[in-house]
Specification:
Layout: E1 2-6, H1 11-22, E2 27-31, H2 42-47, E3 55-57, E4 63-65, H3 67-75, H4 85-115, H5 125-142, H6 155-164, H7 178-191
Parallel strand pairs: 1-2
Antiparallel strand pairs: 1-3, 3-4
Length: 209
């Protein structure tokens, strides 16, 4: 059985959970908190020497880390990955952008406000500007389109909805992006995400990827 090591409130970890559940994969979720030092234990470092969640142990005993690498592996051959080379490349383009230009700003703003207790007014203005720019780009991309690539949900949507749906927890008003709010609802429905809340309390940032 697939073993998933993750911190429950990490969007990066939820990507793996949602992918496994969408594909009907049997998996064991192993709660691995970052702030309590679980990712620095010798046992976990033997699985992922980088000390980051999510990480998985596959059924054959091999290990894999980095959220987007894991979901690409799990979803290989499924409808979550487009059939044509161009659309697959477009999906990958969004996955790369998510980790480089979206998660470092949207997720960090959320972490600082919700888990460090920093007032929104005290967030680094550059962080806020870049987070809003990322949301604006997504809003434009889904204006007039149901999903980011093609006519059905793909890993591009799954990856980007993880932290986008919680952006308001970082003081980023999703109501300012109506097309984006509609896209979030569509993706949640398509992936059968039961609710908008994380699994339980904790924190998976900044050592989640």
């Amino acid at each position: 059985m697939l073993k998933v090591y993750g911190d429950s409130i990490s969007g990066n970890c939820l990507k793996v959970k949602w992918t496994a559940e969408y594909l009907g994969l049997d998996y064991e979720w192993i709660e691995t908190g970052v702030l309590d030092g679980a990712t620095r234990s010798p046992e976990f470092l033997a699985i992922n020497p980088a000390g980051q969640v999510p990480a998985v142990i596959l059924a054959d005993g091999r290990t894999l880390a980095q959220s987007n690498a894991i979901i690409l592996y799990l979803a290989d051959g499924s409808s979550l990955i487009p059939d044509t080379p161009y659309d697959r490349a477009r999906m990958l383009e969004w996955l790369f952008w998510e980790q480089y230009s979206h998660e470092p700003y949207v997720a960090v703003a959320r972490f600082q406000v919700r888990y460090l207790g920093k007032p929104v007014a005290e967030l680094d203005p550059k962080l806020v500007d870049r987070a809003r720019s990322a949301l604006q780009r997504l809003d434009r991309a889904v204006t007039g389109s149901d999903f980011l690539v093609g006519s059905q949900v793909t890993l591009a949507d799954l990856s980007l909805v993880a932290y986008t749906r919680m952006a308001d927890e970082g003081g980023l008003d999703l109501a300012a992006f109506p097309a984006l709010e509609r896209w979030i609802a569509r993706v949640e429905t398509a992936l059968d995400i039961a609710d908008r809340a994380p699994i339980q309390t904790g924190s998976a940032y900044p050592t989640a990827a």
